[in-house]
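Q: Convert this sequence to structure tokens.
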Amino acid sequence: MITPRPFDLEHDRCGAPRRLHGEHWQVAGRTSGGSTCIALHGGPGYGAATLRAGAERLAEVADLLLVDLPGSGSASRHPGSGYPIEGYVADVLALCRRAGDRPPLLLGHGWGAILAVEAALAEPAAVAGVVMLNPLRLLGAAGQDHAAQSRCIARVDPTLPD
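A:
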């Protein structure tokens, strides 16, 4: 049986508190110390709810953290901070350091794939590997296919805003 539990990770970045929120999906009774996969949502702004459809199957083989990154879902909001990509990479690496005894696998969807790659490049020893789903080719409006991402999200959960 797989039991998702909420989790919060609070850490200090550049003198400001950051809170990441998410769900820890784990097979009941599985002992810790196994593989962990951190799933990073598309966006910014979409949240981990967009990745719930496949969470149970993935949680059968690894502990899974579905994460709302700052400014998305139930995570903290920081108006005026500009949310630089370096800040998100620091958030992802903070999650990696707290994921367990072994470096986690990062699974990134769309914008989350960019963050996964950047985190792996910034601190290779902190990441076991990267899986990219529908990665964006550029971090800018010209490289994003908003219409295609919206259609995909609408299929997963039609109640989410595009």
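The beta strands are 2-13, 16-27, 36-40, 63-68, 105-109, 129-133.
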